[in-house]
Amino acid sequence: MSKPLTDELRAYFRGLKRQVASNTAAGNVRCKVGNDPLPFSVHRHRVMQMLASTGRDMIFGRAFMIMSWNLMSRAANTLEIMHDNMEYIEDALRVYFAQMKNDQLGERPRDPRHICANPIYPEVCPLVALGVVWLTYGFSDSDHRLFAGSRQYNRFSSVFDRALKQAQPELQRRGIQLEDIGCHSIRNGSASYCSSGSTMCPSSTSVHLKAGWALGGVQDRYRRTAAGLPINKPEFATLPPRFKDSDNVQLQDAISTCFPAAPASVTRVVEFTLASVVHHRAFLEANTPPTHPLKSSTLYTTPGMLIDCMHSFASRNDDGAHASSQQPATNPSSAELHDITVGTAEKHEADVSTSTIYCWGGIMRRLPATFEFPKVSVSAAWQPWQCGGGRRNYPPFRSLEPNDMPTTNARKRLSDSRFLMNKIEDAENALESIWMLP
Q: Which of 12, 91, 184, 382 suits 74 as a labelling partner, its CA being 20 to 30 A distant?
């Protein structure tokens, strides 16, 4: 391409960009690009409403939505999760992605993305969501993906649109248009939520790792934040529900009965999902209708199975488990802040003296109109001169001015006292100089 043509095209496109920018500034072109982030409060409200639905699509869509939020992944990546690419280590579910939009050849380091349970808010807990799906519909023998089936992206998109239409009044109240929210809003919302809302939010590096935007091979700290655990409370380090004896025969029978077709690679995963479902049984009972498919699952219809699983439950810390990849500190709770504030205020009130301002003769003064100089010895006069005090909590006499004195005699006494105290200080300084001589 010749240089004159190159210059002409460059000038043309610069003018075109300027015109687009001007139209955008004038309101003729949409300023925002892409989908708006989905707020966590809307996400939490939607999945709670979807839990009450008995439709198969809603059960699938709810689990898909929660997994996409916690993985901070594109919908296409969530669809391709394989059972063999899932494992449960320590206190987190690990998921591996073999291929992503910005890694089509699969050459980037394949570091796992972590998902944590949320025992505090079970409506957004990913393990509860997976447990409900697996208990209700089981596993496919021919399709080893987490969300088996054909045209699952279109299926989720339809479910997500229906869920958003039900929340349209709330979105409009927040100034969010329905057409600005799409499947990608889940990923954007999770990234925005992890990057804000606290002075202790994860670093931008951690969020970029979670979203798969850049970097790799670095330890991340996003998992508990994305799970929706309360980041400003000690409960941020809450461990997932778990069974105290994984080798218990009754427990193993319950797992094999509830998940008969579960692949061997997810044995540990289904154990923790079952633990979460059993732990939140009261929540699920209260928030699902009697006709919900979960209540027709093997766990609920087999006599005594739910009771056996409950007996196998571990208390919070009796098995030595601990939270991994926890943030080094959390913000103090409101109760702790209250204690700190009250303690500081009490100490301030106890240690800091105050003085009263008096008004007489038309001006503000530091002494009352009835003030009289105390008749004491020179040694006794040193204390009020330097520190003030007394029954009326007077200020230090050395800071007083003649205008503060109510009578001529008091002003003369102030002048005499200042002369005397200055002489004492000069003598003290001279004495110190003598002692410092070699």
A: 91
